[in-house]
Structure formats: C-alpha cells, structure tokens
Amino acid sequence: MRYVLGLVIISVGFLITWKAEWMMDNFGRVAWAEEHLGTEGGTRLMYKLIGISAIVLSFMYMSGLIQAILTKIFGASINTVNQ
Questions:
Q1: CA neighbor of 31 nearest in space, from 15, 44, 47, 43
Q2: DSSP conformational letter for 19
Q3: Do residues 72 and 23 touch, judged by C-beta distance below 8 A?
C-alpha cells in the first residue's frame, strides 16, 4: 500500500509542477508568494516547490526514510509515552 500511495503522490506532485501556470490561472495569485518568492512569478515558483516537495517526501515515505528520521527526532519522547 505504501508504494501505491507513493506513486499517486508522485503523480500529483508531477502534475502540480508541470501545470503550475494552469493552477495559477485557475486558483489565482498568492500575494505572499508574489511578495516573498519573486516579483512576477512567485506563485508559479510556489506551486513548483510544492510539487517537488511532494515528490521528494513521497520517495522518502516509500523508502522508509521519513519514519527513520521521525524516530530519530522524536524517538525519546515516543518511548517515554509508551512506557
């Protein structure tokens, strides 16, 4: 199931990255992105960053790297709660 979900998220991330212009046309510009990520194209960049982040996080989830990182970060607090 992990791999199926990962492939779906990778596909969605690819579509978000590929169709950033379409998303901007349909959902409008994001004022925060336009101000902080560039003057004329910050919204496109934000959509592309969201898509690429989804792809990278999905690969990390599929390989088990996310779980390993979260265990390293929160492992002590998780073990304390379970005991």
A1: 43
A2: T
A3: no
